[in-house]
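Input sequence (412 aa), recorded before submission:
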Amino acid sequence: MKLLLKLISFTLFLFFTSCTNLANQQPIAIPVKLEQTNKALHQGYQHYSLEGRRNEVLNLLEIGLDAFQIQAYKDAETAFDMAIDNIESIYGDNEAAQAARKLWYAEDVKDFKGEPYERVMAYYYRGLLYLKKGDLDNANACFKAGALQDAFKEEDQEISDFFMLTYYRLWISDLLNEDSISQDIRHFFKNILKSKMSLPKDGDNILIVAEGGNAPRKLADGIGHHTLVYRKGKAKAPYKIEVIINDTVKKDLTRIEDIFYQANSRGARPIDRIIEGKVKFKENTKNIGKPLSSIGEYGMMASVLLSNSKSSTPLAIASGSLAVVGSTFQFLSLKTTVKADTRNWRNLPEFVHTTTIKLPAGSHKLKFNYYDQAGNLIGSSSKSVNVEPKNPTLIYSRQKNNLISSKKRKKI
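Predicted structure, token format:
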């Protein structure tokens, strides 16, 4: 009898705790004073509040990149700092980090921390923001931290292949006269990667970064939608980007990063294995639960027929226990969710192009031309920059701003 009561209690416990994972979907307070932020970001922060903790990092990343694109750099710093603090909490001993290991949390309900490529890009943009302020040391630390996000053993990849971060660290090392680090990185590009790309030259005080295309799309595929697949963004991305400096000097930028490739070529991350385990767990619990429930039901019917027999009471208890165990397994099968998480950082680019150049102090005019693979011009943009003496300068351009934080997500 005690066993039967314990099994009933366990089943009830599972039922009531199934509702607890909804807590991270409740509205949360806006973490900034809206009147002190750019108006273009206000709707994004409203979405941040309404979508709760599970999309907190996702909304902060999109707000941060929107702010970066419209040159609201202080707002971008605030958003990316909060996002990165939250991302790093995945390694702490807290409920959000443990949720990934719980079989009965749906993939698209857990707190969003991003795929490895998304976490890397958070550090990439924070590093660019430091470069905007001329803070080389913190920019270098961000690029190094971003590379670590791409190289966790738990994700079957022990070396980062986000080579743009390594390239930017090389440029910074040259500027800081860190000769040994610079030599190691140059050796890596030339002798390990066998790369023929143009590396920063002595005296290059300008880093040019140009982006094009739209973010990779995540889709749920397969039976039960438990397989995560990637598709390219729908915007037409440039195959080549050139910059024309002061209407005279023309230079092609190196396409140094393919964000879709980074998303699509990952080894199995921990959650993929958990999803795979969920499918097997769901099938096994269903297969075990149904026969046990049936045996229990037949046993209870037999105990009724033998009601006058001395064996009827033990048979009823044993049958009831089997029925409860069977029901518990079936409940676990229903409660185990296997749908892949398709939330994605929507305003990322598809490609990053870069180069370094040397410019004297003063005002300069730059024009960016974007070409498709056939050599057709598909877009252009211009900007003026002021280069200060002895100060390294970041020049950033995007084929077309993709402001997304104000747009409601299809599935919240």
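Checked by second reader. The radius of gyration is 28 Å.
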